[in-house]
Design brief:
The structure is a homodimer of 308-residue chains.
Chain A lengths: L3 E7 L13 E6 L2 E5 L5 H7 L7 E5 L5 H4 L1 H11 L6 E5 L1 H13 L8 E5 L4 E5 L3 E7 L7 E7 L8 H6 L6 H7 L4 E3 L2 E3 L1 H4 L8 E4 L7 H6 L5 E5 L7 H6 L5 H10 L4 E5 L9 H8 L5 E3 L5 E3 L7
Parallel strand pairs in A: 3-4, 4-5, 5-6, 12-13, 13-14, 14-15
Antiparallel strand pairs in A: 1-2, 1-16, 2-3, 7-8, 8-9, 9-12, 10-11
Helix pairs in contact in A: 10-11
Chain lengths: 308, 308
């Protein structure tokens, strides 16, 4: 059981407002932080949220627009000023590496920790850890852009102690093996892990769109998300603007979420023209039954799916 | 009579806090904005303060540390997204020009307006307008840094209508000449402007320290300021840290203000270690009788000096 929360650190598109900062969202999974985008000024909400300067951390930048990457410099510097020495893994396009090195040269700031830079230039799995992986998919934006998915691997089913006892399997090492998916031979008999455990317990899946038009590819990429954070810069009246600027409307976000069977949809990345987001929620709720609205510093619990 | 206000847009040193953003202060003089430093995220307070995206504007960057210059990119982009087409004058070191061009190339953002870049590499007058000038002086910081002064020229004294009438000077053009400092010959007689006007009315002088140790040079540079905005990163207990990091203590700020006969001293640029600034105020007030504390979005009226 790993606790997982998502916290919005910035939810405005292109220009910040008094209430909304520029794009950034973090997933706190156990003791690790997975940050997606770092718009200018996001470090203040990072600080307000008390996320901590010394955690294991991976940072993913969807695309190289200022409102998605500019805050990375300040965040890195602040972590260093707080004495961080643990390396940070940064994932983004080649231009992100150039952005970091050039600015570190020009502004002349050194960090106490290393940056492990991972160039993301094609689709696929970019992180594979023991319990989860993170993959990316080409989005469709003005500039080259990627969407991301965090997918936890299924956990083994619940170990059926009674059944194991009925097979006279001794407690200890063999229990543990069966519990973790290992078949065993005991007393000359093959005993499958699947005989002793319930059905695998599904991991969670979270999708982060970045800036994009909706596409069939993204619909498939986000299939069956527990939580989909999807941009809705405009309401559907501004469909033409969405097409021109390679963004999505709230209606399109909801259609994509519905078709990809996302359980929950969080709308974010709102144009500053909307003081009231209710219009966008309403048009999305007409299509998807579980629509919520991102707000700066909103904290979202992501529980495990109930076993079917 | 030109209305002049100063508004703090960011008042924290190096790292922002929940309450204080990174260094930035703007002087609104009539319809013109004079911005000094642009720490990351300052555009949000710029927006909150309702300063307007289409005003005449000059921007001065004291030095090339991220917490003083990073916000410039976002501010410029936001002004452009708001449709600004009027050029902006930017004053800073050569590295600032490189910072702007490199980031505009890497992040690929175009502006609808021109940047008139003015390289500041030595002391002296950097702006000379009809009613004021802005000059800079070498500060003493870890990196090359400049302090700035805005100095309004004295306005002519009040025109003495009764006296002019007694000299039988006809109203109109000659009045205007005398009023604006021009001597005239009337009826074969030299009449000096100074005979017909009261004493010149002094302009205002505002000093902005940027990051610095106190120096004799700065004391002279800031002589007789109506308002001095001076960094006080530390209290005097942390004197050694101030020396090491090339900053000032609140006590040092007050001594410099006192010796340079600044009328009002505003302390700013506080280390995040001080949740309560009262300690810093108290040690400064023990020395200078008119000490105030900068806070984000604090608006300060700068009235004309009463004629002596």
């Amino acid at each position: 059981m790993v606790d997982m929360k998502l916290i919005f650190l910035g939810t405005s598109a292109a220009i910040p407002t008094a209430e909304r900062g520029l794009s950034s969202v973090v997933i706190k999974r156990g003791n690790e932080l997975l940050l997606f985008d770092a718009g200018e000024g996001m470090q203040r909400n990072f600080i307000r949220a008390g996320l901590g300067m010394n955690k294991r951390m991976k940072i993913f930048i969807t695309h190289m627009h200022a409102d998605h990457c500019l805050g990375l410099l300040g965040l890195l510097q602040t972590m260093s000023l707080h004495g961080r020495t643990m390396a940070v893994d940064v994932y983004g396009q080649k231009k992100l590496a150039e952005f970091l090195t050039e600015n570190m040269r020009i502004i002349n700031f050194g960090l106490l920790f290393n940056i492990n830079m991972h160039i993301v230039d094609c689709e696929g799995v970019v992180v594979k850890e023991k319990e989860y992986q993170i993959s990316c998919c080409e989005a469709k934006h003005v500039v080259h852009s990627f969407s991301y998915c965090l997918t936890e691997f299924d956990r083994p089913g619940i170990f059926m102690l009674d059944k194991a006892k009925r097979f006279n399997i001794p407690e200890g090492d063999l229990y543990s093996k069966l519990q973790h998916g290992q078949d065993i031979i005991y007393n000359g008999e093959l005993i499958r892990s699947s005989q002793m455990t319930g059905p695998p317990r599904p991991g969670r899946k979270i999708g982060i769109s970045g800036d994009t038009r909706p596409t069939v590819k993204l619909r498939d990429f986000f299939r069956n998300c527990d939580l989909l954070v999807y941009e809705s810069t405009y309401n559907h009246d501004k469909y033409q603007k969405a097409v021109e600027n390679f963004h999505s409307t709230a209606r399109e976000a909801a259609i994509l979420a519905q078709e990809s069977e996302a359980k929950r949809l969080f709308l974010t990345h709102f144009s500053t023209r909307y003081e009231e987001i209710s219009e966008l929620i309403n048009e999305a709720r007409a299509i998807h039954e579980n629509v919520e609205v991102a707000e700066d510093l909103k904290l979202v619990d992501i529980p495990y799916r109930k076993s079917d």
